[in-house]
Amino acid sequence: MNQEQKIVIIGCGAGGGTAAQFAKKQHRKSKILILEKGKYPQYSKCGLPYVLSGVIPKLSDLFEFSEEWFKKAGITLSTNTLVDKIDVNKKKVIAKKDDEIIEESYDLLIISTGSKPFIPPIKNIFLKDKLIDGVFSIRTIDDIKKIQNSVKKGKRAVVIGAGFIGLEIADNLNKIGINVKVVEALPQILLTTFDEDMSKIIYNKISEKIDIILNSTVTKIETKNGKINQLLIKNNKTNIEQKIITDFLILAVGCRPEVSLAKNIGCKIGKTGGIIVNEKCETNIKNIYAVGDCTEFLDFVTKRPVQIGLGSIAVRQAITAGINASGGNYLMPKGVLQTRTSKFFGLEIAGVGPTMDFLISDKIVTATFKGFSLPPYFPGGKPISLKVIADKKSGKIISAQAVGNNAAQRINSFATAILAEMTIEDFKKLETAYSPAVAPTIDIVTIVCDIISKKLKIK
Amino acid sequence: MNQEQKIVIIGCGAGGGTAAQFAKKQHRKSKILILEKGKYPQYSKCGLPYVLSGVIPKLSDLFEFSEEWFKKAGITLSTNTLVDKIDVNKKKVIAKKDDEIIEESYDLLIISTGSKPFIPPIKNIFLKDKLIDGVFSIRTIDDIKKIQNSVKKGKRAVVIGAGFIGLEIADNLNKIGINVKVVEALPQILLTTFDEDMSKIIYNKISEKIDIILNSTVTKIETKNGKINQLLIKNNKTNIEQKIITDFLILAVGCRPEVSLAKNIGCKIGKTGGIIVNEKCETNIKNIYAVGDCTEFLDFVTKRPVQIGLGSIAVRQAITAGINASGGNYLMPKGVLQTRTSKFFGLEIAGVGPTMDFLISDKIVTATFKGFSLPPYFPGGKPISLKVIADKKSGKIISAQAVGNNAAQRINSFATAILAEMTIEDFKKLETAYSPAVAPTIDIVTIVCDIISKKLKIK
Question: Known catalytic residues of B?
Answer without folding.
Answer: 46
